[in-house]
Amino acid sequence: MQKFYHSVKISALSLILAISANGAPEIKFKVAYPKLKIKKPVWVTLLPGTEQELIVSQSGTIHELPKDRAAGNAKIWFDLTSRVQIDKDFEEGLLGLVFHPDHKSNGKFYVYYSRQNPKRSVLSEFVTKNGKPDPASERILLEINQPFWNHDSGQPAFGPDGYLYLSTGDGGKGNDPLLTSQNLFSLLGKILRIDVNNRSGDLQYGIPEDNPFVNQPGARPEIWTYGMRNPWGLHFDKSGRLWCADVGQALWEEINIITKGGNYGWSYREGAHPFPLNRNPKIITEKGKEPVKLIDPIHEYSHADGISITGGVVYEGKAFPELKGHYIYGDWGSGYVWGLTVNKAGKKASNLVLKKRNPPKGSFKPTAFVNRPDGELWVLSWDGKIYEITK
Fold this sequence. Notes:
The structure is a single chain. The two termini are 31 Å apart. It is built from one helix and 27 strands. The chain is mainly β and 391 residues long. The model is unreliable at 1-21 (pLDDT under 50).
């Protein structure tokens, strides 16, 4: 997931920043539950058909978020610690939860988690009974072997087309040592697109017929896009646009808008820049051969401003109308939070600073930005706290 950065306690219950120079609104990042801590929270989602929000702990548990803001405990909704296996307690674990679009009628939901011996990532389907998960209902859809302990990527998402999208990292270590991201026969370093309602051949899922590499020799038909390093945060906005933040290595962090069959460059390059430690063959540009087309990120920032991007969501709330339509994201290392806008052509229009760098002893380290049912935001932090933005 994110790069290691020492975490220390912060005495204040809120991080306040008032900015006018760059046009950003005056906002406060306020701890929503002063007495509650969830170990390494990575996602919050609504249990369909209810008003109950669920919060995912990377350690392997899913909790019911209390209605009482003064609560000090969160009841466990589903305990997956017997399945989730962690080698290094950092990037492995329970990394994703998403409910089937027809959950209210079929009870299905999906989790993405780590296993060991052999080291692998698992995408599984479960079914609820009377609103509670049935542990015996697990159906493993997909297992992806992981050569190293890091770059497992995370949160799966259903698209407006009803298919499940899953981002995968390049397998880990550094410099893409196994050259997975540009290898179309590997599921690593990709965004996958599968049909959970059907099955193709011996697979536990179906392959959508319009996936870009269907029937292409030497390519996995699950692949939707490739050339990713360690995507951390997939998000479909209301227009159906798919956003993806990709964690960099040496110099650059990037945000991409995903297109069918696109190649986003890793490890030929990092962001929009040549990657000096690239071990891949040179990009094909010889006469008579079709060059590899790399898609530029819509935005990037250097490691002067952060070391590990946390992908966000497009804000659709009412509390800050000036932020409506902004993609809110941040950096796990520095604590910066920004709001990005793009124009109709999909090009960056503006990038507002919403929270500046952490103070030297600050522990705000965003792991996820989540749209609540009312369109307002939860911001989850590595230190176990849940933040909201207020005026």
